[in-house]
Design goal:
Layout lengths: L1 E13 H4 L7 E13 L3 E5 L6 H5 L6 H6 L10 H7 L7 E5 L5 H4 L9 E4 L1 H9 L3 H6 L11 H4 E3 L7 E5 L3 E5 L6 E5 L8 E6 L4 E6 L5 H6 L14 H17 L4 E4 L3 H10 L4
Amino acid sequence: MNLKILDTGYCQSLEKVAIKGGRLKKIQFPSIVALIKHPKHGLILFDTGYSNRLFEASKKFPARLYSIILPPVQSSIYSVVDQLNDIGIKAEEVQYIIVSHFHADHTCGLKDFPNARLICSSSAYNHLLSLKNSFEAVKEAILLDLIPDDLENKVWLIDADDSIKQTQDQHLGVLYDIFGDNSILINDLPGHLTGQIGAIINTNNEQYFLIADACWLSDSFKKNILPSSLAKLIISDFDAFKQTLNKIHLFHKANVLTHIIPTHCRKTVKHHVLETQNL
């Protein structure tokens, strides 16, 4: 099994918001996607990152608030569907998408993959359904126009499927072995948004832990440094966020060879876009 990291573009914000003690300087926060090739289950994505669909979905109020508050740099956007097309992979070939959470910068490409089954947690799915209108959704950084109309027919709620084998990690807790072969292990990473999940990917040679927005910079999990208080504005449950970050920190100390990849860390992305295996 192989894994490749794809960079779909970036937004900019102050480093000191993402991590206590950070600089009062704007830095790039990329939105990455992982492309996984499973020998039996085919092509799998972890999230779908940015695409120009974001600008279409945020043209009107209240969705426009999203593009005003935290807009990506449009010239940086290189959507995952275009990147796959450039390497000869058709959108119809993608069999699964692991949706870490439903924030707009992780879901812009969901409608681009018609055959993909969407893997998420029950709490993330139910939270999405509980949003009564676009204004409620935008307050949660979710753009409903990015969500497939046939979501109900596409979702695979991994924690509600009794057929999925569960294992236990001493630091992370329950892991869902979705294919029963130890290749992809899903785990809960609560705090940033209701129902957020991550994925441990065991490739032919390496282990990767995709942690989505459990933190934004690699120094956070390495040194167990929380974001600033300002970040509470985009964190649904700060106590849970703190506990999740501590779990990942302890996992990192016990598994130093595992590549832990936050979705938005430029330093991590620069290394892994170059180093991850070609499919």
